[in-house]
């Protein structure tokens, strides 16, 4: 049904990236899920229980079944083994009793902690970071997302390289190791070589990403040239961003604006999708749906997804979607704000959408300043959200009277397609139009203003 194996190149071995592969077809059946034990260190942090639950959900998103949770109360992790010696022995017995194939730690482990733990318990040890990276690796669809995840994985592997005594090739010469290097000096250790292989891969991926982003850049510039406001949906994973996007697209998208993928699982969305919405008065905006955030999102992944989150960073307005029915919504909001800061998203105007109110006993839709209590499944909520968005992004519209000479018929067509034409009257020297339009368009056609 599945194989769990340590990723092992001929000459590059890494401890905590475990590839979990499933055959097609039955990969999602319950019986095929590998079993694992979740381990966590309770240092007195407030959201400890929740973060252990979330670890199980992350494992489930990877089709791994957590059968038992083992925790220890300590002020800080034990340097070499994460848990104390006694606890590690206890864990070893549980691993044997439960017949699990892996242990998943709630914190990011050091390379030596992983090595030492694996040495005692004899099954693969993965940490939270490795798990998240693996989910992203499995889900990434576009070439850009795939490369970004690959880059994050390589950067994660780099400090985790190790070499066993038997692998050491202290007097390495010639062809005994792969990687395409010809210039391997005598005395270069295996680990140095491994590092160079990975560094080379990193450069290669970076280069490819740069080329892709050039063409992405062109698309973005085209959009920017259209001068449309950009609204970005951001927030914790599974909050309902894609569901809100779809509800808006259903009402205001053109027929070719496709629905995005929404599902009750962590990280359903990995690529940014942008859709255009057009309202009855011809006002238009671009809406982007983005990857969701999670506590302790691996730093390398944040780094890698900066360009995916370009839309968020350059938006005119953010809509932070919150799962209002989740008891941990406050820490999820804190994580979202922290992640936005880490990505370098400036302090943008923001609407906070307390979504999934239908699962709470709070009445909805209801607005309080920039906060909206709503449900993505409720038309009245979507209507109120649209009012709030319009109020914020179309405030720079101006209304003016124009006289367009008959020779400039293209301007009349432009207004009819892109602006809110309030009245048109034909006079001797052209068309007299009262138009509500963006400040940019006003500046562009100012010479026709009367
Ligand atoms: N009851 C209820 N369920 C909702 C609501 N909004 C979204 N959901 C459900 O919540 C789940 C997650 O929704 P998504 O829209 O995929 O969430 P997301 O924020 O895009 O998640 P990621 O892409 O993983 O970041 C789906 O099963 C939705 O049907 C809501 O207002 N009420
Ligand atoms: Mg989504």
UniProtKB/TrEMBL annotation:
Which GO terms of the molecular function aspect are on file? GTP binding; GTPase activity; metal ion binding; ribosome binding
- Cofactor(s) required, per the database record: Mg(2+)
Positions that bind GTP: 235-242, 267-271, 289-292, 355-358, 375-377
One Pfam family, short name: MMR_HSR1
The lineage's top-level taxon is Bacteria
Alphabetically sorted, this entry's keywords are: Coiled coil, Cytoplasm, GTP-binding, Magnesium, Metal-binding, Nucleotide-binding
Query: Keyword Ubl conjugation, does the record have it?
Result: no
GO CC annotations? cytoplasm
Cross-referenced InterPro entries: G_HFLX_dom, GTP-bd, GTP-bd_M, GTPase_HflX, GTPase_HflX_N, GTPase_HflX_N_sf, P-loop_NTPase
- From the UniProt entry, list the residue stretches annotated as the region Disordered: 164-186
Q: Where is the Hflx-type G domain?
A: 229-397
Task: List localization entries.
Answer: Cytoplasm
Sorted alphabetically, which SUPFAM superfamilies does this protein's record hold?
A: P-loop containing nucleoside triphosphate hydrolases
- Which residues are recorded as binding Mg(2+)? 242, 269
Major site of localization recorded for this protein: cytoplasm
Which positions are tagged coiled coil?
195-225
Family of this protein = Belongs to the TRAFAC class OBG-HflX-like GTPase superfamily. HflX GTPase family.
Q: How does this chain assemble?
A: Monomer. Associates with the 50S ribosomal subunit.
What does the record give as the function of this protein?
A: GTPase that associates with the 50S ribosomal subunit and may have a role during protein synthesis or ribosome biogenesis.
Name of the featured protein: GTPase HflX
Which species is listed as the source?
Secundilactobacillus malefermentans
Gene name, per UniProt, is: hflX
């Amino acid at each position: 049904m599945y194989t769990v194996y340590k990723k092992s190149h001929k000459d590059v071995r890494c401890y905590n990236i475990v590839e979990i592969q499933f055959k097609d077809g039955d990969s999602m059946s319950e019986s095929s899920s590998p079993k694992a034990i979740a381990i966590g260190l309770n240092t007195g942090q407030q959201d400890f229980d929740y973060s252990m639950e979330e670890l199980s959900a992350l494992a489930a998103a990877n089709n791994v079944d957590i059968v038992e949770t083992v925790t220890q109360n300590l002020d800080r992790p034990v340097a070499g083994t994460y848990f104390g010696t006694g606890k590690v022995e206890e864990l070893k017995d549980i691993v044997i009793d439960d017949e699990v194939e892996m242990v998943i730690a709630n914190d990011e482990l050091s390379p030596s902690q992983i090595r030492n733990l694996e040495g005692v318990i004899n099954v693969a040890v993965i940490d939270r970071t490795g798990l998240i990276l693996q989910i992203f690796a499995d889900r990434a669809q576009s070439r850009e997302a795939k490369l970004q995840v690959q880059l994050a994985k390589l950067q994660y592997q780099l400090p985790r390289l190790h070499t066993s005594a038997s692998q050491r090739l202290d007097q390495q010469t010639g062809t005994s190791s792969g990687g395409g290097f010809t210039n391997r000096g005598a005395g270069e250790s295996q680990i140095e070589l491994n590092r160079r292989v990975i560094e080379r891969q990193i450069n290669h991926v970076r280069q490819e990403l740069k080329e892709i982003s050039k063409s992405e850049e062109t698309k973005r510039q085209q959009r920017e040239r259209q001068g449309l406001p950009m609204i970005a949906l951001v927030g914790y994973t599974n909050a309902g961003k894609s569901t809100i996007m779809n509800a808006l697209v259903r009402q205001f998208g053109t027929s070719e604006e496709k629905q995005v993928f929404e599902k009750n699982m962590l990280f359903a969305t990995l690529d940014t999708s942008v859709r255009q919405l057009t309202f009855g008065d011809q006002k238009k905006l671009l809406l982007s749906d983005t990857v969701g955030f999670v506590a302790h999102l691996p730093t390398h992944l944040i780094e890698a997804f900066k360009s995916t989150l370009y839309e968020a960073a350059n938006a005119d307005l953010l809509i932070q979607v919150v799962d209002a029915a989740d008891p941990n919504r406050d820490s999820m909001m804190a994580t979202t704000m922290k992640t936005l800061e880490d990505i370098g998203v400036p302090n943008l105007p923001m609407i906070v959408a307390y979504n999934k109110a239908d699962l709470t006993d709070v009445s909805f839709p209801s607005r309080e300043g920039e906060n909206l209590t709503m449900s993505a499944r409720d038309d009245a909520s979507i209507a109120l959200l649209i009012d709030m968005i319009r109020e914020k992004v179309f405030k720079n519209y101006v209304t003016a009277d124009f006289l367009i000479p008959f020779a400039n018929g293209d301007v009349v067509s432009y207004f009819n397609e892109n602006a809110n034409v309030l009245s048109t009257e034909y006079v001797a020297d052209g068309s007299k139009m009262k138009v509500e339009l963006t400040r940019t368009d006003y500046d562009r056609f100012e010479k026709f203003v009367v």
